[in-house]
Amino acid sequence: MRIRIASLLAIAALASACGGEPEPAAKEEPPPRVRTFADDTIGVKDKAQQRTEAAMETHREALQQRLQEDEGGAPPEPPAE
Questions:
Q1: pTM for this predicted structure
Q2: Closest CA to 74 of 64, 3, 36
Q3: Using CA atoms, how far apart are residues 23 and 41, in angstroms rounded to an integer?
Q4: Using CA atoms, how far apart are residues 45 and 38, in angstroms rounded to an integer?
């Protein structure tokens, strides 16, 4: 009985050692990108932030110009080189 179990274990070990990993397949290209409903909303947050910053900068420049006019002078010009 022990011989039979030992031979079965030996055969199982040999059979498991023979089975290797299959050869790796060539890399496949991913499928083409499918347009989804969310594509239009991607980047909306960034666009809104850029527009807000541009509006703030325009307002800041207008305030700066108004302050300079109220103080009665033009902004100091940089020295000519």
A1: 0.41
A2: 64
A3: 43
A4: 13
CA distances from 35 to 38, 41, 44, 67 (A): 8, 12, 17, 50
Distance CA 38, CA 1 (A): 68
* Per-residue tens of pLDDT for the chain, all 81 residues: 788 888 888 887 776 666 666 676 778 888 888 888 777 777 788 889 999 999 999 999 999 999 998 888 665 566 665
Distance CA(73)–CA(1), nearest Å, equals 111
Helix locations, 1-81, DSSP H: 2-18, 44-70
Q: How far apart are the first and last CA of the chain?
A: 105
User: What would the two tokens of residue 57 be?
Assistant: 């900068």
Size (the chain), residues: 81
